[in-house]
Design goal:
The complex is a heterodimer of chains A (about 120) and B (about 110). Chain A is about 0% helix and about 45% strand. Chain A is built from no helices and 10 strands. The chains are: A mainly beta (about 120), B mainly beta (about 110).
Chain lengths: ~120, ~110
């Protein structure tokens, strides 16, 4: 069955970077995309961007441009999300989800279990 | 790229129907038939309930239905059950490979 398994919780200091992984199983990794979302404490879901594993294209909303990089390693069926220059308001649960390979018109049909990133001095 | 607007809360008694709205603009909800709804229970991962405005994935009860009018999408839950209590999020395609989420609606079954 389709599974997305994320890396474990992280604690980072302000100004540092974090890289969260999302390992896929049960489907042809290269045929889809991966979107990343986050949920800060007491807040709603926020879309952070998308990568097409199919062709390597990425798209980030303006809020995260310049601070986030999404990559995918087809040899290990693993997607990565790196967020730089961390601030305290980046403390959140970060989630990956399977997405459309062409960009934007698909749905998040399978989700990872989430990775808690805590930013604290 | 503003968030879609959802009511923060909704409620209904078991057996009743409740409708949650999701208001955007002509650049997102009104411009595309790519609105999805997700159910998010505490401690669980979000679950896709409706896609492409009104389509139900396999396994989602037909008590859940979606529709759209202009710049507003709707999720209706009929025959409310206790297990339907959760946060519900809408999301829409907003062009240029961008997605936008609603702020979420906490559904309480009284």
């Amino acid at each position: 069955q389709v599974q997305l398994v994320q890396s474990g919780a992280e604690v980072k200091k302000p100004g540092a970077s974090v890289k969260v992984s999302c390992k896929a199983a049960g489907y042809i990794f290269r045929s889809y995309g991966i979107s990343w979302m986050r949920q800060a404490p007491g807040q709603g879901l926020e879309w952070m961007g998308w990568i097409s594993v199919f062709n390597g294209n990425t798209k980030y909303p303006q809020k995260f441009q310049g601070r986030v990089t999404m990559t995918a390693d087809t040899s290990t069926s693993t997607a990565y999300m790196e967020l730089r220059s961390l601030r305290s308001d980046d403390t959140a649960v970060y989630l990956c989800a399977r997405d459309d390979p062409y960009g934007g018109q698909g749905d998040f049909d399978y989700w990872g279990q989430g990775t808690l990133v805590t930013v604290s001095s | 790229q503003s968030a879609l607007t959802q009511p923060p809360s909704a409620s209904g008694s078991p057996g009743q129907a409740v409708t949650i709205s999701c208001t955007g603009t002509s650049s997102d909800v009104g411009g595309y038939n790519y609105v999805s709804w997700y159910q998010h229970r505490p401690g669980k991962v979000p679950k896709l309930m409706i896609y492409e405005v009104s389509k139900r994935p396999s396994g989602v009860p037909d008590r859940f239905s979606g529709s759209k009018s202009g710049n507003t999408a709707f999720l209706t839950v009929s025959g409310l059950q206790a297990e339907d209590e959760a946060d519900y999020y809408c999301t829409s395609y907003a062009g240029n490979n961008i997605r936008v989420f609603g702020g979420g609606t906490k559904l309480t079954v009284l």
